Amino acid sequence: MPISESMVQDIVQEVMAKMQIADAPTGKHGIFADMNDAIAAAKKAQKTVRVMSMDQREKMITVIRKKTKENAEILARMAVDETGMGNVGDKILKHHLVAEKTPGTEDIKTEALSGDRGLTLVEMGPFGVIGAITPCTNPSETVICNAIGMLAGGNTVVFNPHPAAIKTTIYAINMINEASLEVGGPDNVACTVETPTMETSAVMMKHKDIPLIAATGGPGVVTAVLSSGKRGIGAGAGNPPALVDETADIRKAAQDIVNGCTFDNNLPCIAEKEIVAVDCVVDELLHYMVEEQGCYVIDKAQQDQLTAVVLPNGKLSRKCVGRSAKVLLGMIGVTVPDNIRCITFEGEMEHPLIATELMMPILGIVRAKDFEDAVEKAVWLEHGNRHSAHIHSKNVDRITTYARAIDTAILVKNGPSYAALGFGGESICTFTIASRTGEGLTSASTFTKRRRCVMQDSLCIR
Ligand code: NAD
């Protein structure tokens, strides 16, 4: 095949970007060989952060935001290189989103009660050093998002990241500490270990100086944290269904669902993982998905081949997570043009490519006989995670029925899933959605504890 000029330009750009990564500063602020040392350093730093004014904390967060934007492309490329998951363009957008929409100190509010017997304030104070466990699907986004919220609350943080994303995580943690140093704050406001393992995680979970653990990941880690005897914030797995009924704008639903599903190759836990559509709209929906949204329909034999590749022996293959539709189809010998961005087919809800949380752009469609049947199927597919669900309908009563039945932390109506993270929707950004423990979209106030400060018989001037 002859190499076109645009291909040469793409290759040059790629090489330049890789050289930029190689040249990037590889400072090691906050990085330790031993978990106990990391916790001790974060504890020392917290003594300083604790007494920093809100204004000083906000200045530190402002520099973290600025550095995140400046390093968005480097972090995006590093994560794709290291984990093999996702795509650089969307990861850059995710870093800008974290930088711009993760709440800072403004999220921490004081409640006041006053009356004949005086004045009471309920103030939100830090926990101390928080232990945070982070996934490989959004590695630096989660680290930066957690750090902004935790530091705003006056805490410092020790991370036990996914080992498959350690280089990217170290880069992000170093950047956060450089931001703190730049505004006169302490080093080690965020720490980690060079080689995170289950053992370093266990040290963190049992450590006397860690009062709170925030776990972002699959069911295993959330269960481990909730069994640790410490207070835990559990942001676990999802399998968000997108329900479509006959009142929806079907063309727009196809666009929103495929856009949400394919964002960063379906890595976000909130992303549409399957569709449940009422019988009378399935064909129209599929038509728009194929004709206008770059979906490729696979037949029964291809579904079986893909199931064998994606779920060998029923276990999710990490080699497939976060890969593009084109790459996944290539794995079963199907060559498609670059504009194919999603794989689809109609199947029963029990189909393994539909019922399993895959985190790749495979979007099975389940046909329901009517709205009630669709709700029942969507609730089953969400598996009681209570994480995220989506609906395309113009009937408010039906939306209410669905919302009550599925009972998720996030429910997006008539939009792509990422609207829930503030990307084209009215929302804050977070990459830690505490579905299992009920905090929902975590932010600075989630990482603080309530304190009551009572003045008896004075300071009420009503
Ligand atoms: P994962 O569960 O394999 O790993 C997540 C983190 O937990 C990693 O740091 C890993 O090392 C650690 N871990 C795993 N099992 C553990 C155990 N038993 N004890 C201690 N630590 C353990 O998940 P992943 O592949 O990195 O990420 C994808 C999963 O995370 C998906 O299920 C996705 O839905 C979920 N997720 C949830 C949220 C949310 O906000 N709710 C956000 C992102 C990802």
Give a description of the structure.
The structure is a single chain. With 462 residues, the chain is an alpha/beta fold. The chain has two domains: 5-236 and 441-451, Aldehyde Dehydrogenase, Chain A, domain 1 (3-Layer(aba) Sandwich), CATH 3.40.605.10; 241-424, 3-Layer(aba) Sandwich (Aldehyde Dehydrogenase, Chain A, domain 2). It contains 16 helices and 18 strands. The protein has helices at residues 5-23, 35-51, 54-70, 72-83, 88-101, 139-152, 166-182, 198-206, 219-226, 250-262, 282-292, 300-310, 325-331, 352-355, 371-382, 396-406; strands spanning 31-32, 111-115, 118-126, 129-134, 156-161, 190-193, 212-216, 231-235, 241-244, 274-278, 295-297, 342-346, 362-368, 388-392, 410-413, 433-434, 440-441, 448-456. The strands form four sheets. It has a seven-stranded parallel β-sheet, sandwiched between helices. Strands 1-6-5-4-7-8 form a six-stranded parallel β-sheet, with helices on both faces. Strands 2-3-18 form a three-stranded antiparallel β-sheet, with no helix packed on it. Strand 12, helix 14 and strand 13 form a beta-alpha-beta unit. The chain is globular and about 70 Å long. It starts with a helix and ends in a 6-residue tail after the last strand. The structure holds nicotinamide-adenine-dinucleotide. Nicotinamide-adenine-dinucleotide (NAD) binds next to strand 4, helix 8 and helix 9.
